[in-house]
């Protein structure tokens, strides 16, 4: 046996292997993308808000998507009707949004879907999906006893082999789709002989056992529970004169694949040629072998295999796939799962400080989202984590509560994940699905908000360009006029904003044109929604019957409680001063400020800062108590800046700034730039159009006004905190302040992704003070 790059099979494989090939529009399958939404919770009360962070990742490279800008996110009721929908702007694979859980949502169950327009071309790409619950009086009741039990059996390799030792995967679930944990399944033959007893399934109802399949015998699994009839499941009939595979995935350095067959079969097929292939996306490893008179074992070095889900296939001498099995390679240099450290400190005013830090040897920066709920809450119960949405779901045909396998992962959890993949068979892709077929892209890759327009009164001899600028965002664009005076483009445009259009004439002068414009990205109905909505997720059977919330209000009123950040709205432009805390102030820059202080340096001087030099060093200062000067650090759009870069700026380039001059805290100046400022005399040179079907405006998190933070309804279903954008690295802890709402125990849930595709999924239970 030896590694092969051989003969006709390898040539044919490369010719038909679908991944990396082009479809009719020049797109390669390496641009397939997967989606994950980190949600603040999955069970809601009326009056709350669903907050989410979107992560989009390329399937082949494992990197954040740089192609997708438009992500569709919608809520559907049980009848498959769309209730709410938003378009989310994705930049470098990241985005965020929210939905109000309001009076329009009258049902108790909904499904949250997220998809791109382009992925609808491919049947093997699936949307992100998460079931949600809305708690009402009639839904908070003890679940009735299990009405039915279903048992399914999955032979390893795809079929039972007569005369050989076979492994089978088992799935036991009740009528609610919940896995059944058992330790009393029994395997018998058709003569009533007990072959295996006390077979165990885990919390998801998944189990595994092995036995010798004797000729001319049939086999049955039996399961009996009190007050229910005995369940008997017949196993598939064994095949004769065939070879299958068994995978030992427990070794640290190697994956072992053993050929499985009867002695007579190996004697009959002695010295026949077979091939084992292991593939994932574009990766393909081949091993040819010649059968011996015994069960051969082939080893694969883990470091030579990609990290994540792989599929092994056994081909016979005619290159026909005869056995197959999925498995997970945990050990690889490509492993991009990153651990996280969280420490906490209790501070005043019913708050704690959380310090988040990556290990010292990890030289990356994670963009993360954080959800915090009361300990013991039933409100946060997602089907997938960011790990499973990107590492398992793209290759799986079944829907499981897969994040279970990566929580506090150890040897046992890895073994259970191997059982879970055993029952997948081919998974989402069988070998024939890898072959190149002609693909027609009915759904284009959307890029920004598309528009078409026309300048009716343009004089093309002198006026050949239009200047387009969004009023509230930083989007701007110059477009050439066509011979028919039309123009078109794509821009980052948000709902609630307006697109302003001006005509550029001779010498670059602007004038207000007679114009018409049409936004062309009208949301299209999701035709294949039933394929994404109609699936059952196998979940753990969790007992919440002990919770008592009767006679407590199950709806709340919303009010804005700002946390850590300030959102500048139109109201602030009418009153340009705002107070963030006792030490931190803010100013929104208006026309009057610009008229009084044309430069930023004169404006800062008006606020009491000292502009000038100190021992020959240019800077911005404040006086200290001893008569000296304290240097004030300056931040522009979240990045540190040198004083020389700032002092000469015109004030018109600043949208708003926050600052502290207090001696109780370190001083600072934080500046948000305004790239689209238009001076007053030029404002009448634009025609404005309300933006239709634009991106949803990102909103700052606000906590609902719960009536009682000590009630069981709050502890069972309430939220404490959400933050969509937190930057975490190993250079020093990232500190956030969290109000704890009089809770003594909390759960912190963190998910995130770095620019190199590294992933974080971390949960921690924190106890505050004495029990």
TrEMBL record:
It comes from the Bacteria. This is Carboxypeptidase regulatory-like domain-containing protein. It comes from Maribacter algicola. The lineage of its organism: Bacteria, Pseudomonadati, Bacteroidota, Flavobacteriia, Flavobacteriales.
């Amino acid at each position: 046996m030896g590694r092969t790059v051989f003969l006709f099979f390898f040539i044919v494989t490369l010719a038909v292997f679908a991944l990396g090939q082009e479809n009719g529009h020049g797109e390669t399958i390496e641009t397939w993308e997967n989606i994950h939404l980190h949600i603040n919770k999955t069970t809601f009360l009326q009056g709350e808000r669903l907050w989410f962070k979107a992560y989009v990742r390329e399937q082949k490279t494992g990197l954040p998507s740089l192609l997708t800008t438009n992500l569709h996110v919608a809520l559907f009721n049980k009848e498959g009707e769309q209730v709410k929908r938003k378009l989310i702007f994705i930049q470098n694979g990241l985005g965020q949004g929210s939905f109000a859980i309001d009076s329009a949502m009258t049902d108790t169950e909904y499904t949250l879907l997220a998809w791109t327009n382009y992925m609808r071309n491919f049947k093997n790409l699936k949307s992100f999906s998460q079931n949600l619950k809305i708690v009402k009086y009639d839904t908070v009741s003890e679940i009735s006893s299990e009405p039915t039990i279903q048992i399914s059996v999955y032979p390893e390799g795809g079929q039972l082999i007569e005369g050989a030792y076979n492994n089978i995967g088992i799935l036991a679930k009740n009528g609610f789709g919940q896995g059944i944990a058992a330790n009393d399944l029994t395997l018998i033959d058709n003569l009533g002989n007990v072959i295996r007893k006390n077979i165990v399934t885990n919390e998801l109802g998944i189990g595994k056992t092995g036995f010798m399949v004797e000729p001319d015998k049939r086999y049955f699994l039996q399961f009996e529970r009190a007050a229910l009839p005995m369940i008997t499941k017949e196993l598939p009939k064994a095949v004769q004169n065939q070879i299958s595979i068994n995978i030992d995935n427990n070794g640290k350095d190697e994956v072992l694949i053993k050929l499985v067959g009867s002695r007579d079969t190996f004697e009959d097929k002695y010295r026949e040629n077979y091939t084992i292939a292991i593939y994932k996306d574009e990766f393909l490893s081949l091993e040819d072998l010649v059968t011996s008179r015994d069960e051969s074992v082939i080893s694969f070095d883990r470091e030579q295999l990609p990290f994540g889900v792989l599929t092994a296939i056994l081909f016979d001498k005619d290159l026909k796939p005869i056995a197959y099995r999925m498995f997970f390679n945990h050990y690889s240099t490509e492993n991009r799962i990153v651990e996280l450290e969280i420490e906490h400190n209790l501070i005043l005013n019913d708050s704690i400080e959380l310090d988040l830090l990556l290990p010292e040897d990890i030289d990356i920066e994670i963009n993360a989202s954080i959800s915090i709920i009361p300990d013991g809450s039933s409100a946060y119960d997602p089907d997938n984590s960011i790990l499973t949405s990107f590492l398992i779901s793209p290759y799986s045909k079944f829907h499981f509560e897969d994040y279970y396998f990566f929580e506090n992962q150890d040897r046992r959890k890895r073994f259970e994940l191997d059982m879970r993949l055993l029952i997948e068979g081919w998974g989402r892709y069988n070998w024939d699905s890898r072959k190149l077929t002609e693909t027609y892209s009915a759904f284009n890759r959307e890029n920004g908000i598309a528009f078409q327009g026309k300048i009716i009164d343009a004089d093309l001899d002198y006026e050949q360009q239009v200047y387009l600028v969004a009023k509230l965002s930083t989007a701007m664009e110059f477009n050439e006029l066509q011979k028919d005076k039309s123009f078109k483009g794509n821009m980052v445009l948000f709902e609630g904003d307006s697109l302003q259009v001006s005509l550029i004439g001779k010498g670059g002068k602007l004038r207000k044109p007679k114009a018409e414009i049409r936004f062309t990205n009208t949301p299209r109905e999701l035709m294949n929604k039933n394929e994404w909505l109609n699936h059952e997720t196998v979940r753990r059977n969790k007992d919440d019957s002990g919770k008592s919330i009767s006679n407590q209000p199950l709806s709340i009123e919303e009010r804005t409680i700002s946390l850590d950040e300030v959102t500048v709205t139109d109201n602030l432009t009418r009153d340009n001063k705002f107070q963030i805390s006792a030490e931190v102030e803010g100013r929104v820059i208006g026309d009057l400020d610009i008229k009084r202080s044309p430069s930023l340096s004169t404006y800062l001087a008006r606020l009491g800062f000292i502009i000038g030099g100190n021992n020959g060093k240019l800077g911005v200062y404040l006086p200290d108590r001893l008569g000296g000067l304290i240097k004030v650090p300056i931040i522009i759009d979240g990045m540190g800046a040198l004083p020389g870069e700032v002092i000469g700026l015109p004030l018109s380039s600043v949208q708003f700034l926050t600052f502290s001059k207090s001696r109780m805290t370190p001083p600072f100046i934080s500046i948000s730039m305004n790239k689209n400022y238009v001076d007053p005399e030029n404002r009448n040179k634009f025609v404005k159009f309300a933006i239709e079907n634009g991106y949803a405006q990102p909103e700052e998190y606000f906590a609902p006004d719960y009536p009682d933070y000590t009630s069981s309804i709050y502890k069972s279903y309430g939220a404490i905190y959400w933050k969509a954008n937190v930057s975490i690295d190993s250079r020093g802890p990232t500190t956030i302040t969290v109000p704890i709402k009089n809770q003594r125990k909390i759960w912190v849930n963190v998910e995130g992704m770095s620019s190199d595709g590294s992933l974080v999924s971390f949960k921690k239970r924190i106890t505050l003070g004495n029990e």
